Amino acid sequence: MNKVTSFINNNKAISWVLGFQLFRLILLPFMGLMPQDAYYYLYGQNLSLSYFDHPGMIGYLLRIFSEIFGQSVFVIKFTDFVITSLTILSFYKLASYFLSKQKLERAIVLIASTLFISILSFNSTPDVPLLLFWTLSLICLFKAIFEEKKWFWILGGIAMGLAFNSKYTALLLQIGLIAFVIFSNKYRKLLLSPWLWISLLISVAVMFPVWWWNYQNEFASFAFQSSNRTSSISEFNISPKKFFGAIGHQMVLLVPILFLVFITFTFKYIKRALLTFKIPQAKTLFLLAFFIPTFVGFFAITPIYWVKLNWMMPSYITGIIIAAMFISRKLIKLQLIFSVVLHLVIAVQILFYIIPIKSDDTWVGWKELAIETEKLQEQYPNTFVFSEDNYKTAAALNFFMNDKVYAQNIIGLPALHFDYLGDDLSILNAKNGLFIDSDKRFKDNNKKGESHHLLTNYFDNITELEPIIIKVNNKEVRKFWVFYCTNYQSKNN
What we know:
Elements: H1 2-10, H2 12-27, H3 35-45, H4 57-69, H5 73-95, H6 101-112, H7 115-122, H8 127-146, H9 151-164, H10 171-183, H11 194-206, H12 208-216, H13 220-234, H14 240-254, H15 256-276, H16 282-289, H17 292-300, H18 313-326, H19 329-352, H20 366-379, E1 383-387, H21 392-400, E2 405-406, E3 432-438, E4 461-472, E5 475-486
Parallel strand pairs: 1-2, 1-3
Antiparallel strand pairs: 3-5, 4-5
């Protein structure tokens, strides 16, 4: 034990990493349920080969942890924390293949100090397992290519497949691998190696459950993730707001210093490639092959499309390794100052909820809403509960309530994976319903004064009840409109 303590004390980098992780672990019990937590927990409670919005890896992990430790908000957060901690350890192993001891320490401090690691540690999303399997894939591919260990081609294929079973953007792993081989003078010969293609075929085989689910469901998930976004991009409406919004998000996720280092070395390598046609040495090219397509690719469309803040996260793995090659000790110190201040602000917000969040993407109020909704069900017997906001309210209430809560497919609207749970809505015929509608821009305690225009197509009478007001520290922070709807008639029977 003394040796371990001495090692930590003598290694500032490890101390910083453990400090950040301890900070995150301490905050876990104070984090309430996020709608995303509840939705992907719903995945795990309704096991399937895949799901409408995403593959199911995050749901499977939440199911495994909940079976072992029980159902609670803390267990959900603990799942994310454990998987993300494994990602940090895997990153350290990967970075050790490219960096000297001093630069390796800088790399591990850089990744541990980012806000994106905190987000992954606190919030259940497909990115949580994606980042782990992305990193493991790169470890295996490095071993297969640079150390010529053929067994790792097989392991790499499995890891790439599991990454895809976490999130579709993992296809950029195969793209990065092929790009590296094509542009590398030394390793271009791998195009003729059966091991490269065996690895790719294994990755496709591991993806089979996702492909099969899509085949069985008319490729609904692939269409959802591609067609709508492709049509939006094809409209080519330039928006500076989207571009600068993406920059703002990335500066927060990476912390400004690291983001600026990313921009600097990206510009450097692209300029060198365009002006001198010089290809970086093989190991650097390997890192860039799994950075450029994701980071630069998504950044390129930000002027015409709203790129979500988590889409570029996989690029951070090799991007941070490259950044550690250039960043100075002074900039590391600035990075840590920014990071510590940012994380302290976040801690204050989590503990005291100083600034109310005008959105349903919050960890506050869901349990209280469930309690108040159950009280309403006692006042209005024989009622089922439903909402209309894609998934957020329905998923959160499903987590906290004993009775099943329905989504907007009740009134004929597409409801993401709620449409694929196999619910027979006709069993609700003649029942009464409680429609819960979140007031995202909560300004007063007044009733809404009007109901959703589709409710009258499915219910005989609609009566607005008093809204549910959620308080935190005696301060009103959230509001939900409530409508009592009688005699439901499903259109599906």
